[in-house]
Structures are given as C-alpha cells and as structure tokens.
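#struct-queue
[09:14] JT: dropping the first one here, sequence first, then the structure tokens:
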Amino acid sequence: MSTYLKKTSTYTVSLVVLLPLTLFCLTFLLPFSAYLSNPLATPAAACGSAGASRVAVRAAPATDAGVGGQQRRPGPELSVLVGVHTMPGKHSRRHLIRMAYALQQTAALRAAARVDVRFALCARPMPPEHRAFVALEARAYGDVLLLDCAESAEQGKTYTYFASLPAMLGGSGGGRPYDYVMKVDDDTFLRLDALVETLRDAPREDMYGGVGLPFHDRKSPPFMLGMGYLLSWDLVEWIATSDMVRRNAMGVEDLTTGKWLNMGNKAKNRVNIFPRMYDYKSAKAEDFLENTVGVHQLKADLRWAHTLEHFNLTRLEPSSKLHGF
C-alpha cells in the first residue's frame, strides 16, 4: 500500500491542529493581553494623529512630544482627547466613525489644535470573537482604550473612563497631556473644527462644557447631556482621586457626572453650547445648523450618510476616478 494511504498518526494530527492555534495566540491574544494592562503602548496609526504610531501621548505635555514619544515641533496651544464610548461588537460603526474623524484632520485643524479620537470599550464581558477583532483594531489603528469595567453606561463606565486616564496618560514635569477630555456617544458626529473654535476662548481650569439642561441656563446648568460633554484636565484628575465620586460612580451617566461636580463644588466654569449640538431631525438642509458642533441620534447608517453628506465629508475631488459617482 502506498505510504500516502497510511493512517495519519496522532502526532501529525495534533501538529496540524495545534500549530495554527499557537500562531494565532502568539500573534493576537498575547499582545492583546499586554494591551489590556497598558492600552496606551500599542503601536498603530491612530485617528487624530497624523503619522502617529501610538494610541495617545504618554507622559508628555501636549506641546513637547509626538505620539509614542517621537519628537515634534512645538504644537498648537489647544489639545482635546475625544473618547467615543462604544461597545466591542460595533466594529463597523467604529470604522465609519474613524473615517469621519480622520478626514477632518486637515492641516488647518492640526495647526489650531491637537484632537485625538479614541474608542472607549469595557473589557467585560467580551466574547472570544470580539476580543480577537478588537485586538486587530488595537494593533492596526492604536485608537482603542480598553477599560476595566462592565459594558453598561449606568454601571460606572463613565467613571472608569475619566478615573483611568491620569494613570494611563501620565504627565511629564507636571504637564497635562490634554487641556480637555470629552466623552461622546457613538451615535454622535462631531465637527472637529467647530469644536475647537468653541473651546479656543473657553476656560482651561474647572471647566464643564456641553449641552446643558435647562437649555437656556447659560451660566450654571446642573448637568450636560450625555450626547457629548467635556471636562478640563484638572477635573479629570479630581475624579480619579475623589472618594466621593468613587462612591457615587453608578447611575445615569450624564446626570451622575453633573452630580459629582455639584456635590464637590466643582466646575465653576460651565459652557453651555446649546443649540449647536442637537438631535438629528431629518435629511433636509434646514434641519442642520450652519454652526453645528455635533449631531446626535445617528443610530442608523442612513442618518450617518445624510449627516456626512450635508457637511461635505463625502465630496470627491474632481480628479477622482469616481467623480460623478
């Protein structure tokens, strides 16, 4: 009988089965395990950092060093970390958002501000397939912040996000890594240039900004709506060290954030940007404001398409081979 017809040995079967599995673990899961303990050390080109090679600036003031410790020329005075709160399974939505913000990173914007967009996900629970796909994103783009929390907006995710950042980002010589940290929903589209323009003259200390309720309370709204709001870096550091905040971490996240600041007598500088951030109404041009900062309630892809088309993010250059598509 030909040797090719002989029964395959157990050793050969084991080798065939285990070798690909071992290579997969070494290639994806082991690096991802390291990423869980230090998500800011994963190399990749991240949205919001032209030529960037790491998730975010670590232990360096915003104007001194580039992403991953690379030297850069003195940067813009204003810096913002935008944390898009999403869930592990929303791979396609993250890719859409990633493109929408990358296209806004123009030379003019980068000269005015450093705006880094990151995706905030909880590590628990995470099925094996999501774990593998998120690991791919982390390696490819470097824009994922994996938090030690359960995936629920009312179970402390927002607290974990803010409280984790000082340890993740660090600082060099007392410098702050960002002037502002933003929490934004994954069904909100931000116009980054309008956001930067809004913040240019805003206070950089003890500042809480967003769409405040009641809408017309311009000076001291008790809380900002969860579609998107900002805290100055000093408030992020306070959240990370406050026992009172830790004890009150649970609850409806936008109300809870306002509660922390009110109970702690913080955020004396409140910036209410109503009506420039608002819920999507329709595809009609009159339902989008000229000075829009953000559009919320983009839960369906069609709403994203209408919004991106209105603000010209889908416009093709005349030289494109797809012109007229």
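[09:21] JT: and here's the second one, same format:
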Amino acid sequence: MDQIKNRYNVLRVRHNDMKKLMSLSGFECDSEDKKIIVDDEGVWDAYLGDMDSEEELEERTLLLVVAAVIENVKGRICKEPCRTSILTGHQHMQEILRGHPRRCYEKYRMEKFVFLRLTHILRERELLRDRRWVTIEEQLAIFLLTIGHKEDNRMLQERFQHSSETISRYFNEVLRAIMELSKELIKPPSFSETPAEILNNSKYFPWFKDCIGAIDGTHIKGIVPLAQQTPYFDRKVNISQNVMAVCSFDLKFTYIYVGWEGSANDSRILWEALSNKSLMFPHAPEGKYYVVDVGYPNMPGFLAPYRGVRYHLHDCRRGSNGRFTAKDLFNFGHSSLRNAIERSFGVLKSRFPILRDPASFPYNTQVQILIATCAIHNFIRTESKSDELFAYYANEENVIDIDTSPPDEPTFSGMYAHQQRRSEMNHVRDEIADAMYRFRYRN
C-alpha cells in the first residue's frame, strides 16, 4: 500500500509539471478522444521550428505523451472511495446479533440462536472460514439477505461496505457450503414406525398408519436465456422449473428432485426418479406408501385419491350438511394428510421470496439456491420449535399458492407396466375408504 501511495505522489507531481508546461506551450489534452490537441496552428509551427535536433523533438514529444496519459488515467488513480460508512459490515452484524431478537428474525429469516447455531456448524466443519475482513457470520448474512429479501449486489455492497466482487464471492462460497450440508439435512426418516403426526391423530389413525410421507410438485419461477425458454413455460405461461418434493408430516423435506422444465409432467418426473438409481429416491418399503395427488397413478408405494370425487378441504366443509360416501371420507382424509406438502411449500416460499421472484443467476445456480433453501428450511425446523412461520402453517388451512387448475393425467407409459400391482393399491384404497365409512356411521 505504501508503494502505491508513493508511486501515486510521483505521478501527481509529474502530472502537474506536464500540465503547467502544456498550458504555457498552448497544447491541451482531450480526455475523451485521448489526443494531444492545439487550437492555434501557430503554436504547432513554433513548436516544430524551435527544435535544434530530432533528438530534442523526440524528447519533448514524449513528455507531451506522458502528460496526456497521466491526464487520461488521473480519474482512475485518484478514484474517490465509495463505501465510506462508519458502520462496517462486521459492526452491522454485531449490532443485529446484540440487539432485539426480532431484528435478527426479520433480517435473516431465522431466530438468533438458530443463526448462531448454523454459523457454529459451518465453522466447526470447516465448510466456511473466517477471513481477515469478513467473518463467517457476515458471509452467511450476505447469503441470507440475498435469498430472504432478494437484496441485489449493489445494496449488499452498501450494507457491508465491500466490493461487488467480494459480495459475489462470499455468496457463492456460502451456497457451496450449504449445498454440502444439504446432504445431511435433506434425508428420509426411519420408515419402521408410524409417524407421530398420524399415530396421535384419530383423523388419520389407524386408517393411514402405513403412510410414510407426501409427494407433490411445485413450480419455482426462473430466468432462462431467450433461446431456451420454450420448454420452461408452465400451464400459467410462467417460466419455471418443475420441482418434485417429498416431505414428512413434521413439514421437513426428505427428498427433492429439481431442475426439470416447467412443461414437464409430474408423473414423468416421478418415473425418472424411480427408474434412475443414481437419483437415490427413497422407495417405500413393502406395505408402506406415500400419499400423492391425482396427477400421479395409484400404484404400490403411492396412494392417490379417487378421481371425480370431492377432494379438497373446502369441499368437505361445503358439503357437510349431507351424508358422505366412503370415497368422500377417504378423499377428505387423504387431502388433509397430503396437505403437509402444501404447507411445507408455503413455509419455504414465504421465508425465501427469491423462489417467487427470481434473481438473475445462471440456471444451475437457481437450481442450487432451491436446494439450499430446502436445507435451511429443514435446519430451522430441527433447531426451533417456536419458529413463527412453521407455527402459522401448523394450521392446515393456512396454505397459499395452491394450484387449483386441473391436475395432469398420469399419462407416462412407464407407470403402467404392472397393471396387476396397480389393482392391489386400488384394493388398499377401497379397504381404507370402507373402514372409514363404517367407523363414521357405525351407529
């Protein structure tokens, strides 16, 4: 730094000398055209006529060139610092973490102790490192403000008093670290026991005692180059990626399959997950199943509702004055149970607005951001039992952004390879429906 300052001082002195000489000689420097100019032709003639030799002409002309170059780069050499707030990024972090707990939740979309726990894990496992000017807390804050408030690079430069390059670098480093951590955070639970949310709720037990989770797809808006956009248009004519997710009934994501074009059929995505072993889909054990909507076939391991029968919760309340059929009762119970995946999506999209209004990242980065948000979602669910977003969506009626358009028919031919086994699952569904009907109208 001292060498740069000394060099700058030398250049400044030379520049002033050259500028003074040029003004006395009649020459000027045009900073836009980057040329040495003279308004009076007599000055140029006198300049040439005053030379005693070619060597003197070369020397004086070189001085003029040097003066012009210095004039041209002066603005860059003497650039005025832009980020000059007295509150550095580190000081800002300390203010938030030592202040009212509400500030941390509003800023970083999680409670203070959850934020500190996450930084501790990232530091302990050496997924991130404290740098001389940027701590892990500050790095994580940059990332969370981007995905939790969709702050752009320029706003983060101002907030943390760092350059554009520094902001981008630490965003990508945190994304890489969370992607690594996601391998532990997004994983299936034990399938050996009935989930507590079913076991302790008479609305579901014993009817759905063999259910191990819920599956559904959701569309996450994205940004794709113009030449590649066509397959990414979904039914609402938005550019999006179609994401298949599996969740447990405590609203954790246990598996996600991302990156598919918005026009892709849900059953096509599921079939690819089932048939491609490298994707490591958590197959249901024999006799167990996931609840799925009518966009998926009713087949072993996947229990779908009856088609053409009232299904959603509002249909149940609207028709409560009359007597329900066995299929009605099954569909209402199934809908309430499968509602867990809708509520999981509701929490995720409410916490991370970047999933509703995408930022201009490369498509692969957009895919990784989605995985990272699901990982952080699970981390918060594990660490905090008082998170307000999870508390809000604990009520199954508090679901937003449900796609009410007619679901796709499960048309992918690979799903129909074993018709006999599909009839087995139809029998399971009928048995559950009949048992629910007999129990409700037992008197």
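[09:30] RK: nice, looked through the second one.
[09:31] RK: The chain is about 50% helix and 10% strand.
[09:31] JT: good to know. Strands lie at 27-30, 35-38, 211-221, 240-247, 253-261, 289-291, 302-303.
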